[in-house]
């Protein structure tokens, strides 16, 4: 079985963009791969954050992931900072990573622009930590969106540089491009994201979600009830694509184009179908929150397992790099 590694920032409760854009795929893939899902708190501290609510966000994210269907037996879910080997390997990789490669990373340029008051070394070094996250478990498969492909290519390059200089240890991992299109925010303007305040949360009540859907823009051509519209120009239909079955989707397309269905009815159908997905997640979350102690134990035991695996890789890397003390040889 190949090893799969993926990471997620500790943003607390998840939204449907996280679920359909990433987590749903991990849930499917966890049965075919030895799967590591890492809550990447060390990555999260490269931009402004509140230390006071970090732990709550980490724990809530873990609950959300298990509620979505991350299987406690199949997936090793753990917190990055609990495994010091990630930072150790980052330092070793820093010495084989050309500075120019990091400076040309699109994400570094974007983040530097948005955080121009705090362009720290961590922002620049972010992809090297990402390479260490992946390679410390010798993962071969990394499910990512388009925006992360450049970082995976750099991970492959870092593995190549290390292997050719010190001897082969690390595999050249592959980016597994997820099929799901990027989920737009409820404003229909940018990708769904907490920072844009345009999300539909997995744990939101039906009433709150309805308020958001009711106020959401549709195809601007549908000014009056009898005006025909085009689902391809409607953000509401982009959500139908995620949750509505084929036949009903066809009816909506026809109904929209012929003005037989109104936008309010179309949104009500979306609400019903969306909650076919959200209801079970919310039920599981409600039960998991009562099992706090058991979840903490799982996270701790997973971190211990990861420390062991990561520690073995560090020993191997140190030996190759001539960092094993002479008295231990
Ligand atoms: Fe959008 Fe549905 Fe209205 Fe068509 S009927 S414009 S798909 S909300």
Protein architecture, described:
The structure is a single chain. The chain has 329 residues and is mainly alpha-helical. The chain folds into two domains: 3-183 and 292-328, HUPs (Rossmann fold), CATH 3.40.50.620; 194-286, Orthogonal Bundle (Tyrosyl-Transfer RNA Synthetase), CATH 1.10.240.10. The chain contains 13 helices and five strands. It has helices at residues 16-29, 41-44, 51-68, 85-94, 99-103, 106-114, 121-135, 149-166, 206-214, 235-243, 246-257, 263-288, 292-320; strands spanning 3-8, 34-39, 75-79, 141-144, 174-177. It has a three-stranded parallel sheet with strand order 1-2-3. A two-stranded parallel ribbon has the order 4-5. β4 (141-144), α8 (149-166) and β5 form a beta-alpha-beta unit. α10 (235-243) crosses α12. It is elongated. The mean pLDDT is 95. The chain binds iron/sulfur cluster (SF4).
Total helices: the number is 13
CATH class of the largest domain: Alpha Beta
Instruction: Write the CATH fold name of the largest domain.
Output: Rossmann fold
| CATH homologous superfamily (4th level) name of the largest domain | HUPs
| N/C terminus separation | 33 Å
Globular, elongated, flat, extended or rod-shaped: what is the shape? elongated
Characterize the main sheet.
3 strands, parallel
Q: Bound small molecules, which ones? A: iron/sulfur cluster
Structural class, from helix and strand content?
mainly alpha
**Percent helix:** 40-55%
